[in-house]
Amino acid sequence: MRVPEVRLVGPGGEQVGVVRVEDALRLAQEADLDLVEVAPDARPPVAKLMDYGKFKYENAQKERAARRNQANTQMKEVQFRLKIDDHDFETKTGHVARWLHGGDKVKVVIVFRGREQSRPEMGVRLLERVAEAVAEQGTVEARPRIDGRRMNMVLAPVRKKADAVNEMRKRREAERDERRARKAERSERIAERAAKSE
């Protein structure tokens, strides 16, 4: 530190006051801690007595937890044709519903071929049918719009991706606990049978 004095904060967060840098360094050595400048732009700069290794470790843990809770929403895409069979429609809307439930956005595309291009109202009706089929999981973010031989519509999920990921994680943990309980019960029965047979 190239300043004559700093505002010192103790290891417990208590305010020590404005002290000379030499005194702050001496206090840090006596307490077997590091002197870390936490607010260099303040006048005088703020320094804190702390274990720098522990500080770095805790910051890394916080960043890791934040990254884990931050789920990135992806844009999925599904293509429909105007003359789609009912079963194919149900299958594809099932995929759309699953993606929306998982917290991802979905771009629904209709590809026009040949004379189909002269009937854009049929494409709009099909996209509205898709939106109605998945109304519980998502809402229309971008209305149907024509782009060359394609018509697009974007559906956004009702809930956030992070909520969906946390729910999925909890469900997996519950299933894992249930499997462990069944396995423990099974091994208990096997042990009882072995004890009876002896």
Automatic annotation (TrEMBL):
SUPFAM superfamilies: Translation initiation factor IF3, C-terminal domain (SSF55200), Translation initiation factor IF3, N-terminal domain (SSF54364)
One annotated Gene Ontology cellular component of this protein: cytosol
Record flagged with keyword Membrane: no
Main location: cytoplasm
Molecular function in Gene Ontology: ribosome binding; translation initiation factor activity
UniProt-listed Pfam families: IF3_C (PF00707), IF3_N (PF05198)
Any one GO BP annotation for this protein: ribosome disassembly
Renumbered residue ranges of the record's region Disordered: 161-198
Domain of life: Bacteria
Domain Translation initiation factor 3 N-terminal: 2-66
Compartments it resides in: Cytoplasm
HAMAP family: IF_3
Protein name per the record: Translation initiation factor IF-3
